[in-house]
Amino acid sequence: xxxxxxxxxxxxxxxxxxxxxxxxxxxxxxxxxxxxxxxxxxxxxxxxxxxxxxxxxxxxxxxxxxxxxxxxxxxxxxxxxxxxxxxxxxxxxxxxxxxxxxxxxxxxxxxxxxxxxxxxxxxxxxxxxxxxxxxxxxxxxxxxxxxxxxxxxxxxxxxxxxxxxxxxxxxxxxxxxxxxxxxxxxxxxxxxxxxxxxxxxxxxxxxxxxxxxxxxxxxxxxxxxxxxxxxxxxxxxxxxxxxxxxxxxxxxxxxxxxxxxxxxxxxxxxxxxxxxxxxxxxxxxxxxxxxxxxxxxxxxxxxxxxxxxxxxxxxxxxxxx
Length: 321
Prior knowledge:
six-stranded parallel sheet, disordered N terminus, 11 helices, six-stranded mixed sheet, alpha/beta, about 50% helix
């Protein structure tokens, strides 16, 4: 009787062990996507790209970010928690180029692959950066701003930027200023920074218009700054005297383009940024190498002249449904 019980117990143990092995063998790799915030159309479209790639490449992906795009402390805590929770890879849009570096380095040293998207980090240990060529995008915004005026008209520019420690904001402004410096009739009159919220950006844009009446074009460097610029021009009723150039596209900014408070939008491809982040992280987890350290995604300059073109409409509204 004892032998039979021992044999039965051994068989049950083997079955349980085999069942456990089967479960772990089919468990999906976990990729943590940690971005700067989650409450804008840009980040919603990044998330759609993340979810599409997670389904296609059979991985488990989470998507989170702090409540605002300045809170690097919370973002660093999210990176540490993802490592503790067993993430095999982290896809990160870094809030602070310098202050997020230690958290990234620590994650990589603990065996986690890190890819940055949208906004880079000062780490030599990350595997890749995916996103807009922000320096070139800044130059595209400057070209759009200058082209709004006749060749003999001085171009007096006010810049509304976001947190200057964020890499993509700095790169955009650097590229913008470099192009403006090459145009004798154009100059940056003043620049301000604001929190990545519409109300903060609106106040900053209004202050520029009040303090520098010579400004005839305002430029916003992300979705929130763009809305702030458009709102300020709308409130001051200066759509006929002050032009505006912004970044990204949502329903409100496109409406501002239609009604004349905005004159040009530099539109990125957030879906592709999210998709490629998870796709390439999946490749790393399969032991594949990435062909390039930097992978740039496209931008398109949308104006009132081309916004109703079929190709542009697809760019502006392809993720609405």
